[in-house]
Amino acid sequence: MQNRQEKISQVVVTAGQMRDIEKRIFAAGMPVVALMEKVAGLIARRIQEIPPTSVKKAYSVPLNTPFLRESPQAGGSRVGILVGPGHNGGDALVVARELHFRGYEIWIYSPFSKLKELTSQHLQYAQSLGIPIYQTIEQLPDSDLLIDGLFGFGLERNLTDPIASAINQLNELSVPIYSIDLPSGLHTDTGEVLGTAIRATYTFCLGLWKLAFFQDQALEYLGKAELIDFDIPLADVEAVLKDAPRIKRITRATALATLPLPRPPVTHKYKEGHLLLICGSRRYAGGAILTGLGARASGVGMLSIAVPESLKSLLVSHLPEALIVGCPETETGAIAQLQLPENTDLSSFNAIACGPGLTRDATPIVQEVIKSDCPLILDADGLNILAQMGAIATLKKRQPVTVLTPHTGEFQRLFPDVPDAKHDRVQAVREAATQSGAVVLLKGARTAIANPQGAVWIVPESTPALARGGSGDVLTGLLGGLLAQAATKQIPVEDIVATAAWWHSQAGILAAQERTELGVDAFTLTQYLIKALT
Ligand SMILES: NC(=O)C1=CN([C@@H]2O[C@H](COP(=O)(O)OP(=O)(O)OC[C@H]3O[C@@H](n4cnc5c(N)ncnc54)[C@H](O)[C@@H]3O)[C@@H](O)[C@H]2O)[C@H](O)CC1
Ligand SMILES: [K+]
Fold first, then answer.
1. Helix locations, 390-516, DSSP H
2. What's the pLDDT score for residue 167?
3. How many C-beta atoms lie closer than 10 Å to residue 491's C-beta?
4. Beta bridge pairs of residue 134
């Protein structure tokens, strides 16, 4: 049984779902006022805990400036509170009051003339405490920290002046900004910037993770993101999400539970999966090696690698444990024909991963594997060739599992008619999967994986260190190895794909920590895969 915290940390909701969950809590008797007190109290406590040294954007603040210490001296730390018209502003005002009583020097920026009732009451009380309140940006005194409570999940339309230009000016100040719920100006679901948005240093996401936190376009606005768990009952979450296709964050616990560990004490190599990699060309020999090394790290029982004949000895020297199948090659050095060992055909394997380094000259090979009845991963040139064949029509004819691993460019070539690829990556990957019947992994800063029923997994953390040639080849091999090992087990394919993507990201994160973001070439990455698990 997963504990509550683990379950909550997996959930990702839209603004509409969050509102429905909130409605249930209020309908059950929880007073709105009490919930706001509780949530904002937790935020105020966190603000006091975060050490100034963890604040990346504090350029203007010497690291020893005690602006966040528990009991600042009078006049010590100055905190500006940005208050919007809704309950996001109400949260901010409760934070203002709490920090005021803890000895912080507070001022409030409240540019809206009409506030929701509860927000208005909190503003009135803050005023009665003598906290200065300003309506225009020009009046604002200096501060060491800004708390952004302008808008939360209630933002409905593009921001316009004067608030839009106020946000732009606030972003220009070299002062850290902590956003409540999400940076004001971001669309809660797509993560799009609605006119303009606060560039936060830190964001406290309230209650449940909102979808925007996993959309690439939002990342540069979010800063460091943290979930403030305010005890939303799981029953309310379940009641609202019910049968809707889920969007889930993959956590370490879920990934580890999906890995084929521990192995059964009595087994043999073919029971632990037989993977066929089809990759490489004279032009792209390295891709085949990296794919092989990714597969090696998966622990797959048996690894066969089909490459053009002229690459055979190179592959043997790098992967002595693998069965290297040298194939006849075209004049350009691509695989011309799959020449598998005697008594072997494509159905002999538990999974096939096809594509890295093939070149488009290997088109007949990709056509052949698509016709096979073996679970298949297509990557790189495998995807480009599929796109030329017409991805959706081709995949609809295929019965066994297909996994596609495109980056954004490949995705657009594969699914030119999926409208949302730039605007909403999560929705785009979901549509691609439902339309094609494949499991689709869309690579990015936050990789998203969808199954044909519309369920989505998101890899919640990664590193730009992985934006490097060959890193995708490693993922294809790793994923192939895991898929082959899972062949006899009842594990949903998308869980395996998400686990491989999570593992790949974790290896990148660990390698970048030890070697900087510049030190994570694809070969080095393969050396960190096992380390990332131990
Ligand atoms: N999740 C929870 O259970 C809790 C959430 N809390 C906080 O409440 C906000 C959501 O509050 P809400 O009042 O619904 O929305 P906002 O504060 O985001 O603001 C809506 C407010 O703004 C107006 N508006 C919308 N778009 C614009 C625009 N472009 N320009 C100007 N005005 C705009 C709109 O008409 C509304 O009046 C959530 O994020 C949390 O921070 C609770 O405090 C705790 C429980
Ligand atoms: K906000």
1. 391-396, 408-414, 425-436, 471-485, 493-515
2. 98
3. 18
4. 109
Query: Coil, strand or helix: which one is 103?
Result: coil
Judge contact between 325 and 300, C-beta under 8 A.
no
Asked whether 144 and 61 are in contact (CB, 8 A), the reply is: yes
Ligand nearest to the CA of 84: 1
Q: Which two tokens stand for residue 68?
A: 């966040």
Whole-number Å distance between alpha carbons of 307 and 358: 9
- Indicate the average pLDDT of the chain: 94
| 18 in contact with ligand 1, CB cutoff 6 A | yes
Query: Which residues of the chain register pLDDT less than 50?
Result: 53-76
How far, in Å, CA of 303 to CA of 147, rounded? Answer: 54
Ligand 1, atom 24, lies closest to the CA of 155
Q: Using CA positions, which residue lies closest to atom 36 of ligand 1?
A: 86
The Å distance, Cα 180 to ligand 2 centre, comes to 4
Q: Which residue among 155, 187, 211 has the greatest number of ligand 1 atoms within 8 angstroms of its CB, and so is best to mutate?
A: 155
Percent of the chain with pLDDT over 70: 95
245-303, pLDDT tens digit by residue? Answer: 899 999 999 999 999 999 999 999 988 999 999 999 999 999 999 999 999 999 999 99
Return all residues near 515 (Cβ < 8 A) that are at least 6 apart: 524
19-44 residues labelled b (16+ CB within 10 A) or e (exposed): eebbebbeeeeeeeeebbbebbebbb
Strands (E), 113-167: 133-134, 145-149
Q: Element (H or E) spanning 81, and its range?
A: strand 78-83
> Computed over its alpha carbons, how large is the radius of gyration of the chain?
26
CA atoms within a 13 Å half-sphere pointing along the CA-CB vector of 97: 20
Ligand 1 proximity of 90 Cβ (cutoff 6 Å): yes
Q: At what angle do helices 117-128 and 87-101 cross, to 10 degrees?
A: 20
- Model-level pTM? 0.93
